[in-house]
Amino acid sequence: MRLQSNLIRLAATDLSNHLACRHLTSLDLSVAHGLRTAPDWRSPDLKVIQELGLRHEAAYLQSTSRAGLPSWICAP
Fold it and tell me: Does the structure show a pLDDT above 60 at 76?
């Protein structure tokens, strides 16, 4: 969740977090508005999950390239 040009920009993770805990959404909003700081602590397994996600995305992009799909289909 980020504040850009006075608009809140949400990610899929923000929706997932909201469905799991509405209070977390209010905490994230207060961080985005600069009313509090984000926690410094990160779960130790977060790095592993991020790495697996990056590998998955790279493999997907490689498979679409091998299938001959145009690069703009896979662009964010």
Answer: no
CB count in 10 Å sphere of residue 28 = 20
Structure tokens at 48: 């592993």
Alpha-carbon span 32 to 29, nearest angstrom: 5
Return the pLDDT at 27: 95
- 3 close to 33: Cβ distance less than 8 angstroms: yes
Domain ranges of the chain: 1-40, 42-76
Whole-angstrom distance, CA of residue 1 vs CA of residue 15: 10
> pTM of the entire structure?
0.55
**Closest to 13 measured CA to CA, from 62, 48, 53:** 53
Q: Which residues have C-beta within 8 Å of that of residue 14, sequence separation ≥ 6? A: 1, 25, 28
